[in-house]
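for the writeup, i need someone to sanity check this before i put it in the appendix. the sequnce is what the collaborator sent (i think, or maybe the updated version? ugh). structure was predicted straight from it, no edits. if anything looks off just tell me and ill rerun, i have time this weekend
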Amino acid sequence: MDILEQADGGIITGSGMAAITAAIMGSLSSGDHLVGGDQLYGRSLRLMKSDLPRFGIEVSLADMTNIAKVKDAIKPNTKLILIELVSNPTLRVADISGIVTLCQEKDIKLLVDNTFTTPKAFKPMCAGADIVVNSVTKLLAGHSDVTLGYVVAKDETTNKSIYDFAVTTGLTPSPYECWLAERGLMTFPLRFESSQATAKILAQYLTTNKNVDRVLYPTLPDHPDAAFVKPSLGVNGCNLVSFELKNKTREAANRFVKQLEGIAFAPTLGDVGTTLSHPASSSHRGLSENDRLALGITEGFFRVSVGLEDPDTLKEKFEAALKSIT
């Protein structure tokens, strides 16, 4: 992992959330303030909204695609900014260049969750991040049979603090799962290239389907954050595609899921097989309906983790299932 991220001294944890928790708690103290992206993974949002305040850590959320809003969220006691370069599950792309500059000006550490982009597409340390986390569970390990995380800090003092917190609180991993993940990392570059290429094809297809209202994928020309995609990702995308049905009812969503044959319905991602997730009832079910809608997560919103299947086969499966909701 250190080689992939071009970092040194990284720590393996028992899960991706363990990595984020250790990164935050190892970097902050009671009385400090954190600014987090407002479109993060549901459990990351819950950690910031419900748990960190109980330990005396102040939290504000901001739109990481709008540098002016990030500036407005900063306080004199702000010590850390947390972003996902590509957000889960809305696939918005943060203004990483603007945020790095802001952090350097204000002497604030930048923590980047690199799970969706992976170090194959983007290396946060090289872009100026101070701390990087990955959920190794996902595309890096790639076989849906481990639960692991990775965290590394640029400076040795912060890295030691994160390590001490992780070990003291039992956030450490299983040796067997580390061995399984090492096996998965051998094929990670090949799996990433194949799955992201197919994801681009699926995204382009979904834009043409009459039963789909909108499609989110970083390299689509109409992506709302297209200006930030090329400077950070170049021609790379990710293996995830999000889309919303025109019929945004739970009934239509259920009908679509039942008709989508051969695609596992699961909240995880990054497996060799394609999976489908319904964020409103899984990753973001802990948020209020108003909070979900503010993120654009309706009952008709889905996230696809594209695997290694043939692109034409995938398109045929989605075509057949989408016909069921006409």
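DSSP finds 13 helices and twelve strands in the chain. The mean pLDDT is 95.
thx in advance!!
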